[in-house]
Amino acid sequence: MNQHSQQLEKPPELERGTTERFSSKGFIVAAIGSAVGLGNMWKFPYITGENGGAAFFLVFIICLLLVGLPVLMAELTVGRGGRGSASGSLVRLSGKPFWGRFGFITIVGAFAILSFYSVVAGWTIHYAVLSFSGQLFHDADYAARFGEFIGGWWPVLWQAIVMLLTGFVVAKGIASGIERFNKILIPAMVVLLVVLMIRGVTLEGASEGVAFFLRPDFSSLTPQAFLIALGHAFFSLSLGMGTMLTYGAYVDRRQSLGAATFAIGLGDLLYALLAGLIIFPTTFAFGIAPDQGPGLLFVALPAAFDAMPLGSLFAGLFFVIVAIAAVTSAVSLLEVPVTYLIERKRWSRVKAATIVTISCLAVGFPSAVSVGGTLPGLEWQGKTFFDWVDFITSNIVLPVGGLVVTLFVGYAWKRAADEAGLTGWWLRIWLAALRYVAPILIVLIFLHSSGLLKL
Ligand code: PHE
Fold first, then answer.
1. pLDDT digit string, tens, across residues 109-126
2. Fewer Cβ in 10 A, N or C end of the chain?
3. What interhelical angle do 69-82 and 257-285 show, nearest 10?
């Protein structure tokens, strides 16, 4: 197809844009809901504790400022300018299907992340229920208990519940579904986090945990730590997966994208900080070594809460927080393919949400039953099906998706500045970050996280 006939046969996404809109506060809250997720609740605290405490925290803030916020702003700007899906907006703004194809990769990526993210979200709900009902406690071996749980069939049911809830919220629409859901849960989450943080830091021996989390240790700041911070800044802000771009398509013209970007970054940081101030004081106060990954949430923390008066209540609250964080992120992931299908196939929102929810459950099933070995054989080269989907999406699709938006706004889309509403120094800094700093650092993240660059 040559350039001329392409212009005659406009793809459907060039004809219409989104019509639903977030309210101004609703958008910020929904975007914070997307950003704050499992990444904040267990990955951030742990990598901070491991890589130099407050020194790492400082590096993380620098990564947010240098790459995270500029790319976040770029995604929001493309979304609002294009008023379409993560693929359609790029086509609309550039007039070239070429960019849309890259955008499409992020849509598949969001779907794939959701297929295993919903599995872990399901685990957290299961643990919340177990804690409140008192069944989680008086158990000597939490590691065995966790292994037994993920090796059984319960995770499949919990994943289905998470996906049904997520699908329901997305089917209700931007304002009366996603916005309303986040407006209730995100403030509720802060209240619960503060309650648990006060409980954590007032425990006897808590200061050791605070020290582990935040004591600055500049000698641990290796190049490796820098790349971990960089990769995490990306994941934590939900970048590279079309989520912020898709939410951007529903943002009101009058909203200041610069102010929104700062608010989302700050929100993301605060929730991560609060999570760390719960996890480490609580585990250290009871002499339990903080574990890495799932072990931290599902083995070390239950053991610590077990030793605390009213532990089942506090543990239940903690898992409710993590579940809220996970489901509000899942909602933003589901919206990515749903917006695409509404645009491309002209399906109703309800139809798109239903079909994607069911497909995601089907694709997520092997993840749910491979990670704990429920069904054996779903493994290849020492990684389960779950691990592979996680590895490919988080380490390959995410940086590629981020790079596409960065290069698009930095080099290809000439009117980006008008849509972003930036002028003067802010504009110069933003464009310099997108043209020179972010692409180099994203390529580094990619080389590091895909295993091509070993430090
Ligand atoms: N930001 C989310 C977290 O910290 C994860 C996420 C990544 C959500 C990409 C959407 C898109 O857990």
1. 999 999 999 999 999 999
2. N
3. 130
Whether the pTM exceeds 0.85: the reply is yes
Q: Which helix (H) or strand (E) holds 447?
A: helix 438-449
Instruction: Give dist(CA 40, CA 382) in Å, integer.
Output: 27
pLDDT for 43: 86
- Give 52 Cα–ligand 1 centroid separation in angstroms: 23
Q: If one looks up domain 20-449 in CATH, what number appears?
A: 1.10.4160
Residue 288 Cα to ligand 1 midpoint, Å, equals 28
Give dist(CA 15, CA 13) in Å, integer. Answer: 5
Buried b (16+ CB within 10 A) or exposed e, 299-329: bbbbbbbbebeebbebbbbbbbbbbbbbbbb
Using an 8 Å Cβ cutoff, are 325 and 193 in contact?
A: no
Instruction: Return the best residue to mutate from 329, 331, 394 for the ligand 1 pocket (most ligand atoms within 8 A of CB).
Output: 329
Q: Which residue's CA is the nearest one to ligand 1's atom 10?
A: 238
Lookup result for tokens 């020290």: 211
Ligand 1 atom with the shortest distance to the CA of 239: 9
